Amino acid sequence: MNIIALKHFSFDDESAIAAWAVRQGHSLNVIVPYEIAEYPAIASFDMLVILGGPMSVYQDEQYPWLVEEKRFVRTCIDQGKLVLGICLGAQMLSEVLGGKVYRNEFKEIGWYEVQRTEERHPCFEGVPQSFASFQWHGDTFTLPDGAKRLAYSEACGNQAFAYGDSVVALQFHLETTPACAATMLDVWTHELVEAPFIQKADRVAAGMEERSARSHELLGGILDRMAALKQISH
User: What is the CATH number of the domain that holds 194?
Assistant: First the structure.
């Protein structure tokens, strides 16, 4: 299976996804949307992963390349590709499917519990009813019409949704590595203000290796189940 990942800032770390792809015999091509002249042909890949980023999906004037990226994402959905959106990627999926993205009441930064809803979806089979995940976001989104709400947290009512069998949106960061998190804590330290759902840097960093390893296992399971859907469709 051929996978494309869209990467939106330089120190984002796709290594958890890359390691999974290697283990399963898939190929991964990482694309930076603001550095390319055109997107790959739709027929050349099977899965699209939209990673996070510090920008907001509604900042088209500030980041004009978002317009073409959103058009590409919508085409991937319409053509039945497997699509996984993470953080910014989840918000982008909401918008292109007709939802709304806006500032959440609270920023959510650190390790917070995510709860599953009663909705069931094949890609979430095996995901615990409650689990801790890394969070770093100020925006949230509404559910598009026809989407299934899969998860929530105390600070954010929509943490995950599915649209049909092949599109999954995750507000939380199962892919985060200790190195990426450490850089975020350094580069974006100004965001670590006193607030109800913003943890101090030492608390975020505590147990990072173990927490990331558990998160990567959960992400691998979701990716496995998405890949299995691809096999079933064939």
Answer: 3.40.50.880
Q: Say how far apart CA 13 and CA 225 lie, in whole Å.
A: 22
Total Cβ atoms within 10 A of residue 33 = 18
* Residue-level pLDDT at 229: 86
Tell me which H or E stretch contains 40. none
Could you list the residue range(s) of the whole structural domain that residue 45 is in? 2-233
Give this prediction's pTM: 0.97
User: 94-124 pLDDT, tens per residue?
Assistant: 999 999 999 999 999 999 999 999 999 999 9
Sheet holding 160-163, edge to edge: 27-31, 2-6, 47-50, 82-86, 167-170, 160-163, 148-152, 101-116, 130-141
Question: Left (φ > 0), alpha (ψ -120 to 50) or beta: where does 25 sit?
Answer: left
Residue numbers annotated as active site: 87, 173, 175
Q: Which helix (H) or strand (E) holds 228?
A: helix 208-233
pLDDT over threshold 70, residue 37: yes
List for the chain the helix, strand, coil content (%; round to 5): 35, 25, 35
pLDDT at 233: 57
Closest CA to 132 of 209, 215, 200, 213: 215
**Residue position matching structure tokens 């959440």:** 104
Partners of 169 in beta bridges: 85, 161
Q: Would you tell me how many other CB atoms lie within 10 Å of the CB of residue 19?
A: 14
Q: What is the pLDDT of residues 60-73, one digit of tens each?
A: 999 999 999 999 99
Q: What's the CA gap between 64 and 84, in Å, rounded?
A: 22
User: How many domains in the chain?
Assistant: 1
